[in-house]
Write a structure and sequence with these properties.
alpha+beta; two-stranded antiparallel ribbon; 4 helices; about 10% strand; elongated
Length: about 150
């Protein structure tokens, strides 16, 4: 369950959603010692394991569903198949960065997918490759190396 926090003095809006002014992290993250008391109370009441609002399995399932929904849209935008072999199986298609991969793209697929769909990121920066051709591309570009 997502709790809406409107007008709270301990939060602010950022490109990542609602964040705590103490730690600059999502209000759904575990509070740090530098966080205002309100963040700690919010976490205890709504998100801490054991509270009546906490449901990890449902959260993870919804997150995975949202990821797949956005990934399907991005795959459609980028042509729907591997640019090398033409495979269309969504389970093996990956987004390939044609330019150097920005640091913020490493762990935030949802934001990346949303930015491509909304046009904030240029679709020309990416193509689709199956997992085999994507890893080969990374080695050929020198981003990965055999040790």
């Amino acid at each position: 369950m997502k709790v809406l926090v409107i007008g709270a003095t301990w939060t602010k809006q950022s490109s990542n959603g609602t964040v705590c002014i103490g730690c600059n992290c999502s209000i759904n993250s575990k509070p740090l010692s530098s966080c205002p008391e309100q963040h700690k109370v919010y976490y205890q009441k709504h998100l801490k394991e054991g509270s009546k609002w906490y449901d990890t399995d449902r959260y993870r399932l919804n997150h995975r569903k949202r990821c797949w929904k956005l990934k399907r849209k991005v795959i459609e935008i980028l042509g729907g198949s591997c640019v090398v072999c033409g495979i269309t199986d969504i389970r093996v298609l990956q987004l390939n960065h044609l330019l150097e991969k920005p640091k913020e793209d490493f762990h935030n697929s949802l934001k990346l997918y949303s930015d491509i769909i909304s046009g904030k990121r240029n679709k020309e920066e990416f193509d689709l490759r199956c997992s085999n051709h994507n890893i080969i591309y990374e080695y050929e570009k020198g981003r990965l190396e055999v040790l």
